[in-house]
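Re: weekly structure request thread

Next one in the queue (464 aa):
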Amino acid sequence: KRIYSEASSGPRNRKQSDAPANVEPWPTDRAQLGLQAILLERAGYTVHKALLYYAAEKRKLSIPVDDELKAEALEVLKSAQQCAEGPRPLPLINDPKCPRCSLQPICLPDEVNAQREGCPSVNRKLWPPRDDGIHVIAQRRGTRVGVRGSAMQITEADGSPPRSIPLAGVESVSLFGSVQMSTQAMHTLAAKKIPVAFLSGAGRLVTMLDPLDSVSADTRRNQVRAFDQPERCLKLAQALIAAKIHNQRTILMRNGIDVPQTTLDGMAQQIENAVAAKSLESLRGHEGQAAALYFGAFGRAFKTNVGESFNEHGRERRPPPDPVNCVLSFAYSMLTHECTAALRTARLEPSIGAFHVSRPGRPALALDLMEPFRPLIADSIAVSGFNRSEIRDGHFNHTAAGCMMTDHGRKAFFGAYGRRMDQEVTHPTFGYRMSYRRMLILHARMIAAWVNNEIPDLSFLTTR
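Done, posted below.
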């Protein structure tokens, strides 16, 4: 956009798009020129006309700046201000503009409309956003992370040449243990809205660096109101826990060797009990019974002796006594970080949850969101990693303080974790494929739509 000199004042815009079929500009272009003309007049210029050039067709249009144009532009501005100050409007229904719109992954028109009552079915194919970003993980002791120009630089303590990663391709950063990050890098990543997670050497999430605009005031207000209502908390928790138990049962059926039928039948019964639960306390009891059945048979999914070691201890967290528990705890910590980032993307507050009790420093809603994904992501990584010998017993240090992964073990884990998060799966309700990482964001945004009363019910990912 360029502005004429004082002798011939007036806005001049160049557009790369095609011109409309008639001699009039597009309404959005006309409103933009009108507002620019008003600004010039308020600055003391006399404006008689505006010029608009459509480069695709090499067509130039001259638009007179009159009272009609200015009134039209001010009306558009007033409508835009009212829209920005009011509640988020519901998405359009079966509109041809939606599939190519850059905001489609945010407002989710077909996903929201599919779960709204009384909406016609949508037949068009949706193409979910791809996950082509780089997820940077730094975990070696003494590693330094900084920025130089438009790239992130990672320098290791062994004196090897720094690695340079373009910031334009970075989607998230995870720092483990004593890895250091410069203040300049923090400022740059925050400005680019790239989340940074700081984790302990054992994988416990310590804190996150998030941009200030990661939470919407309206969405947070509606979230607090929704989770202050026990019946709404129960409704969300039932959907989460029923999906979790279903996926746990699927893991045993896929990988378990000689899993007792009584275990599978008992878990199927707990799914029904979860759906019929009358209170959160009752639901937590059914979830605990299903977990006891699941982890009681989980060791049967492993082809090596790590399964026997897990059976001796069962599921223990602090500290993990065996390699399987160690991998599970590490994977759950990474998944907590992923869910927290997904909720921030959806403008939700991770610390205010429905099923998990909110406590200081506890991302309760992130723990809620990850429930259906624990077996699909974390547990599956443990089973496939050990069964394929990608993660081995030699990747762990066994001490009196518990079992911990070595640097080589963490490297093997991150390889398995990255492949699992990038693996695509078909959504049972919406029918398209997307990666597990994008599936987390999708369900976080569906929770946001639910707390904003845009959809009446929620369903979460289950597999067969």
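Confidence is low (pLDDT under 50) at residues 1-7, 120-128. The two ends are 54 Å apart (CA to CA).
Next request, please.
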